[in-house]
Amino acid sequence: CVAFEVRKVEIGSVNDASGLAALIDDGAFGADDVFGIIGKTEGNGGVNDFTRVLADMAFDQVLLERGTRGQSEIDQIPMVWSGGCDGVITPHATVFARVDDPNPRPEPRLTAGIAMSEVIQPEDIGRPAMVEKIAHGVRDAMKAAGITDPSEVHYVQTKTPLLTMETINDAKSRGQTVFSEDIHQSMDMSNGTTGLGIAVGLGEIDMPTAEQIGKDHSLYSSVASCSSGVELERGQIVVVGNAPGVGGRYRIGHSVMEDALDFDGIYRALRSAGLDLPDRPHPGDIDERFVNVFLKCEAAPDATLRGRRQIMLDDSDVHWHRHAKGAVGGVTAAAVGDPAVFVSVGALHQGPAGGGPVAAIVDVGD
Amino acid sequence: CVAFEVRKVEIGSVNDASGLAALIDDGAFGADDVFGIIGKTEGNGGVNDFTRVLADMAFDQVLLERGTRGQSEIDQIPMVWSGGCDGVITPHATVFARVDDPNPRPEPRLTAGIAMSEVIQPEDIGRPAMVEKIAHGVRDAMKAAGITDPSEVHYVQTKTPLLTMETINDAKSRGQTVFSEDIHQSMDMSNGTTGLGIAVGLGEIDMPTAEQIGKDHSLYSSVASCSSGVELERGQIVVVGNAPGVGGRYRIGHSVMEDALDFDGIYRALRSAGLDLPDRPHPGDIDERFVNVFLKCEAAPDATLRGRRQIMLDDSDVHWHRHAKGAVGGVTAAAVGDPAVFVSVGALHQGPAGGGPVAAIVDVGD
Amino acid sequence: CVAFEVRKVEIGSVNDASGLAALIDDGAFGADDVFGIIGKTEGNGGVNDFTRVLADMAFDQVLLERGTRGQSEIDQIPMVWSGGCDGVITPHATVFARVDDPNPRPEPRLTAGIAMSEVIQPEDIGRPAMVEKIAHGVRDAMKAAGITDPSEVHYVQTKTPLLTMETINDAKSRGQTVFSEDIHQSMDMSNGTTGLGIAVGLGEIDMPTAEQIGKDHSLYSSVASCSSGVELERGQIVVVGNAPGVGGRYRIGHSVMEDALDFDGIYRALRSAGLDLPDRPHPGDIDERFVNVFLKCEAAPDATLRGRRQIMLDDSDVHWHRHAKGAVGGVTAAAVGDPAVFVSVGALHQGPAGGGPVAAIVDVGD
Amino acid sequence: CVAFEVRKVEIGSVNDASGLAALIDDGAFGADDVFGIIGKTEGNGGVNDFTRVLADMAFDQVLLERGTRGQSEIDQIPMVWSGGCDGVITPHATVFARVDDPNPRPEPRLTAGIAMSEVIQPEDIGRPAMVEKIAHGVRDAMKAAGITDPSEVHYVQTKTPLLTMETINDAKSRGQTVFSEDIHQSMDMSNGTTGLGIAVGLGEIDMPTAEQIGKDHSLYSSVASCSSGVELERGQIVVVGNAPGVGGRYRIGHSVMEDALDFDGIYRALRSAGLDLPDRPHPGDIDERFVNVFLKCEAAPDATLRGRRQIMLDDSDVHWHRHAKGAVGGVTAAAVGDPAVFVSVGALHQGPAGGGPVAAIVDVGD
Ligand SMILES: [Ca+2]
Ligand SMILES: [Ca+2]
Ligand SMILES: [Ca+2]
Ligand SMILES: [Ca+2]
Fold first, then answer.
1. Residue C201: is its pLDDT beyond 90?
2. Which of A45, A181, B326, D350 is the Cys-Cys partner for B87 at CB 3.0 to 4.6 Å?
3. What is the DSSP string of C118-167?
């Protein structure tokens, strides 16, 4: 049967994919088995962060040289690169490979599936139509992953279209309007609407009204990790969860951080994934069964944390994205005793306001 | 007898000292009782961080308006402002006031003392002569604080001279040499040599050789917090510890963080100060007895943390000072459940390499 | 009769107003004569740039100590502090004092006037109502300055209200709408609408339609310098121009820079102010008659300059404001041979797109 | 005979080398003719500026695909990538190709030559031995370029070794000392010593004493552009100048900027290269004969410019490198009417203190 191998490798310098090469060379999985990659790279995490390009080129190159797939096939592999190793975060990649396992288990194990949504028109973005199309796509990706129980979906990574001047004009030429002509808002809104679509698709919330989209922060998915890009016309949806009948050694779970200091949320996610932890967990309890955690964090929207003033939203030198990643990255690394953790920012409708979703993957053994 | 009142106040905007004013108006202590202030302000923590100036002016103003001391007397009060509220750190000040207490206790309580060292010549900086002068000054400050047991000193805050072109030329004109003519190095070296002087003064280490100063990172004080300034010719030394026969409700303790993720070091310091904590402490155990913690952090000199690559030393956009404060500030705030913590950087001979000293003050009650 | 004295002083350190003190002590004018101040300070020019506060406090203090006006009267004096001495720009202030001159001249000389607009409702911002209220206020300020010919107005400095959550709710409670509920947009829009109001007030353009506000970049004032603040409910308008019957030695003129490299625009403004310049001007032609130039600059909206790609809008580390000030500050300082020039950013409806207005003041002698 | 083709191409996005591809495809020169490339890329210009890597990969790729040379041969081609398009500078590359020209000219035309110096030992760096080895290498590179008159050398680009912990230990193991064990100083010192070596090699100065190296700022080369890297053990020296008997349409000249505002230095360099300019040059005089200018700039060491205070050395948010490039890039782009100019920083012994060398290349026609 199918099984997933999940391995974390350090990125030793900006364009180093030797960790992936070593895994392939050592037989952990084949180059052609690589199903997806999620990594942190060392740039500024902003518009001109080219470390994502360099990592992508390096990892592509390893797959090209060691496998049989061509560049265009490799371009189809979901590779999510999040820039910004602020504070103590170590550049690294988590590699998901889909392999054969002759001995499937009855207990659920980690599985993943990919689906493309219907075409998302510019006039859909930020509106109920997009929520529905994403919700539908999430259910397709669940099917592809072999997951029937929505509560066994613990991580949904998406990439959805943005508004551009071109697509706005296209909508207008068809007599349509767009939710806003401010294209700078459209990234947040595309991601947030997608977060709601995931929540609807998984039954976390009921279908929201148009007015709630982007406004009602009490509505969110606890498993969403949404990004967007100008080059897309459909949403790319990757669902990771657990399903019975799947092989391999890995399980995934999730929880949320209620705020930037809530490291209990990280331990809850690890427990949800199947890691035995005592009542009062401590980094010393985290052992080689730990694979990785995946968090979204954000500045507290009211600029307070536990009642204390926060200055990150007012810093014109260092973007709040960097402040948030620096602090939450430190909290996360301390909680698990490992700085190679995936912490990214920006979480409209993705986890509670001021906090964010936490997914965790553990190696539960044979 | 003498007693110390120790209170933490938020700085609600860059030049807000209303917290201090309220304490005085509410009778916590008198304006003329204020003995010293240690605070975090919201600037970049670098050369052009003027938030320190604004805080100092605001706190001075409150003392001027509500007390009888003039500006020149108020300028003598040790006020330590550390810029840089990276990540989640909240701008705040810890105010130490020296008051009368008719009911001294037999158990040791928090006390503090100030001394000025002998004149530190430019040719002394970075050399054994400075170590000795500081060590002597530390013992003077202990006496002023009424502390006889060096192990009851838990925090030593210093301000010492730097090399400048003028003082280098002065040394040369007297036929002397200086340890280095690179004035940019002299801040680290003045602070580091002072760290060793504190360690010698308190018996933490034996007198180092000239070669060990600035080089042998195994030598350090666990209670030193050293800064420097061009305007000084002597070292200003403030010692904070516990002594019997002192009144008040406060105790101080200390420990070290072995690295940026070692939050156990924070709990060790709180226990050392007298806070009862269970075996596996949790932020939920921290209650209103908690006053504040004071940490120094730094980039790991070998650019690794728990064996993982660290990128902060290579970031030309955001200084590693900001990365370190962001991450360690997050860890500290999470450990104590309060973002109003004192975390500053730069720790040559101040705590272990890659880590740093942690002092903690708790309110142990009457 | 009335006359204006216009002097430029360096700010020698972040809170240095000794240049103003020296002018008063030397008799250039009295402390109570100071009418307005426009200066550059050395901060980041962003939200957390506190150097503006420090300069304001320092200049206020000199006026308090040397004059008879109290703090609240001094707070009424227009002091415009623009943060950001990027590149080579020197922190400095241009001080305008209103003095008596027994010998008025028939030729026009520099004069200035202040007016407050009608109350600008939240629902007015970004709409024709605000354009009209500002246009009316500009004509009031002209009257106060004694200027009858709109073509003799060369610099209009304004400060107008922003939208806030409170004022948006206030508008709604009265059954009104606002142009946008995105409060981050409201600074640009308040400034831009004001720019159009100035242009209408001075007859530079006809009354724009609602649709043109914020959109039609071909509409602008060539003499507008607009800022905004949350604390206002009316627009504060300072008009600087020339009028006959005014005394003093100074004249003002203006032109525009068509793009960031158009230093001819600076020479055109100087000529317009009355400085004799040869056909091909050179910094060597600029002598002690030069007082200062006041420019607004911005990133080219299409990210090209003279057909070449510009990267400043894509830099997530250093804001394009800083790039633009750095480059245009260099161009301006080179053109006049003096780095103490006033260059600020942000110019919606203030000068041509990608360029900006240039005002120049010269000392034309007795 | 030999001739050089010199062409400037924009870099349209961070890894765009289509401009080079187009030149080859259009027959301007062959891929195998490319002799060297000097370009500006859009990163921060610091340690973690990876835009240089991306440009290098992209330009290499074009040469690989369109020529017969392999990667290792292409790695030998001098490609100098300077990060930092601060202000208005456009990312671009100047490509030098060595072609055949059946019709050499009697008048001197642009030529270039490469030489490797003797091995530069760690103990040589910052000392007279390195000056001598570089001076010798410069004369070798002149020979390779066919230049006999040192005054016809107008640009010398070098890359020389740095000190590292390894090479310092190697020197010590051989009983040698190094000029300083502070490896952070060694880049400036390697470049500065090389600047003096160039000056000696070209007869601009006499052999300096050991004490003058790095200290006596009155000693410099006006044609030096020096960089360094850890991977080298010899100095790579590229000399560009003019020689008779060479074909092609190009000439090079040089001058210096005395300070950051001295745009006359740019016009002097263009005249030196053979461009006819009127007495008072203006950007309008610069026509299609202009190819490019190459400048080094720096912060004024005494933090004043034309007697005015400069704040760039005190900015802890934005490095002075960025301030200097922003301002001088603006001045240069304005002087020539083209933002695609090569402006880099850091100029110990390379041009006058506070200013820097300017080389200019023009197309003087057939
Ligand atoms: Ca890829
Ligand atoms: Ca003070
Ligand atoms: Ca004021
Ligand atoms: Ca190359």
1. yes
2. B326
3. EE--GGGTTSHHHHHHHHHHHHHHHHHHT---GGGEEEEEEEEE---HHH
Nearest CA in chain D to B313: D47
Residues of chain D neighbouring B45 (CB-CB closer than 8 A): 316
Complete edge-to-edge strand list for the sheet that includes strand C153-161? C109-119, C234-243, C153-161, C224-229
Out of C10, C326, C333, name the one closest to residue D261 (CB). C333
- Ligand minimally distant from the alpha carbon of residue B52: 2
> Residue A6: what residue type?
V
C-alpha to C-alpha distance for B54 and B154, rounded to whole angstroms: 29
* pLDDT of amino acid C231: 78
Average pLDDT over residues D13-30: 97
CB burial of residue D68 (10 Å; 0-12, 13-18, 19+): exposed
> How many angstroms does the Cα of residue C30 sit away from the middle of ligand 1?
70
Mean pLDDT of B210-226: 95
**pLDDT band, very low/low/confident/very high, at C230 (cuts 50, 70, 90):** confident
Ligand 3 center from residue B123 Cα (angstroms): 46
- The alpha carbon of residue A312 is apart from the nearest alpha carbon of chain C, in Å, by 10
Given a contact cutoff of 8 angstroms between Cβ atoms, the answer to whether B331 and B267 are in contact is no
Q: How far is the CA of A238 from the centre of ligand 1 (A)?
A: 15
To the query of whether residue B159 is one of the catalytic residues in this protein, the response is yes
Burial degree of D309 (CB within 10 A; 0-12, 13-18, 19+) = buried
Distances (CA, A) of D91 to B353, C212, D17, D337: 41, 35, 11, 15
Torsion of Cα atoms, A309 then A312 then A315 then A319, to 10°: -170
Instruction: Inspect the interface and report whether the beta carbons of A10 and B310 lie closer than 8 Å.
Output: no
Q: Is A319 on the interface with C (CB under 8 A)?
A: yes
Give the distance (Å) from ligand 4 centre to CA of residue D54: 10
Q: Does C46 touch chain B (CB under 8 A)?
A: no
Contact flag D88-C261 (C-beta cutoff 8 Å)? yes
Give the residue on C whose Cα is nearest the Cα of D320. Answer: C87
Interface test with B, best of D53, D86, D184, D316 (most B CBs within 10 A): D316
- Residues of C annotated as catalytic (active site), given as ranges: 159, 227
Encoded tokens for A262: 């809530």
Cα distances (angstroms) measured from residue D245 to each of C260, D35, D109, D361: 42, 19, 8, 18
- Measured between alpha carbons, how far is C220 from C290 in angstroms, rounded to an integer? 27
pLDDT bucket at D224, cuts 50 / 70 / 90:
very high
User: What Å distances lie between residue D157 and D32, D231, D357, CA to CA?
Assistant: 21, 17, 12
- Indicate if D215 belongs to the active site: no
For D156-192, give one letter per residue: b (16+ CB within 10 A) or e. Answer: bbbbbbbbeeebbeebeeeeeebbbeeeebbbbbbbb
Q: Residues for chain C: how many in total?
A: 366
Kind of pairing, strands A342-345 and A290-297? parallel
H helix or E strand, kind and range, residue A361: strand A356-363
The three-class DSSP label of residue D93 is strand
Element (H, E) at C179: none
Residue type, D131: V
D277 lies within 8 A of chain C by CB: no
pLDDT tens sequence across C334-350: 999 999 999 999 779 99
- The whole-angstrom separation of Cα B66 and Cα B74 is 12
List, as ranges, residues with CB under 5 A of the ion ligand 3: C 56, 60, 79
Mean of all residue pLDDT scores within chain B: 95
Number of C-beta neighbours around residue D30 at 10 A:
16
Contacts of A12 in chain B (CB under 8 A): 309
